[in-house]
């Protein structure tokens, strides 16, 4: 079974631009969430998707948006980039049903640098 | 969600047992305690989860006292590859993917 894969691994943008990050969830996992991790800090929850709809959101502004596709893959879009958006963006997946062991499966992240 | 407090950093030597304690004084009745490990430039990896008493798996043990206001992650005989950041999380299991990470404990294992 394949793990969570993210692309691109690294990218550089300038302030004001827009970025799209992509995630393929682990096989059989139908919920996907995104996290932002600034340097030296723990990951912060952005939002979660289930059945192609957002069903949970952290304290992030509307310029952070996402999509989930029928194959459970997902995108994170960030508009009007700011310098503070520079971070490692992590995607995580888990099956919606079945025993909840507290285990989320994370990808290796996309490192975004905003100049 | 219950706030957690854990040491910012710890040092150890290869072969030693490492115990990382996490305080969560405001833990709720339906909260579980979960630990994740993170290597640089990688996503966090689940280590262990428990509700009360002791839980053990192939990589770690989790000790939770009766009052559940703290917990201790125990790593037996650490190696250099255990150098990582360890996060203690407290929250209900019905929170979906909405985990709340604190600052974590940076463990450095020395030869």
Describe the protein.
The complex is a heterodimer of chains A (115) and B (111). Chain A has 115 residues and is an all-beta fold. Helix content of chain A is 0%, strand content 50%. In chain A, the strands form two sheets. In chain A, strands 2, 4, 5, 6, 9, 10 and 11 form a seven-stranded mixed sheet that branches. Chain A has a four-stranded antiparallel sheet with strand order 1-3-8-7, with no helix packed on it. In chain A, strand 7 and strand 8 form a beta hairpin. The N and C termini of chain A lie far apart (37 Å). By secondary structure, chain B is mainly beta. In chain B, 0% of the residues lie in helices and 49% in strands. Chain B is built from no helices and nine strands. In chain B, strands 1-9-8-3-4 form a five-stranded mixed sheet, with no helix packed on it.
Could you provide a short overview of the structure?
Chain A has about 120 residues and is mainly β. In chain A, about 0% of the residues lie in helices and about 50% in strands. Chain A is built from no helices and 11 strands.
Low-confidence parts of chain A: none
N-end to C-end Cα span of chain A: 37 Å
The most extensive contact between chains is:
A-B, 32 and 22 residues
Helical residue percent band of chain B: under 10%
Radius of gyration of chain B: 13 Å
Distance between the termini of chain B: 38 Å
Counting H and I runs of at least 4 residues, what is the number of helices of chain B? Answer: 0
Please trace the helix and strand order of chain B, writing H or E for each element: EEEEEEEEE
Largest sheet of chain A: 7 strands, mixed
The count of β-strands of chain B is 9
Task: State the order of secondary-structure elements of chain A, H for helix, E for strand.
Answer: EEEEEEEEEEE
What is the overall pLDDT average of chain A?
A: 91
Structural class of chain B: mainly beta
Oligomer: heterodimer
Shape annotation of chain A? globular
Our estimate of the beta-strand percent of chain A is over 45%
Shape of chain B: globular
Order of strands in the sheet with most strands of chain B = 1-9-8-3-4
Mean pLDDT of chain B: 92
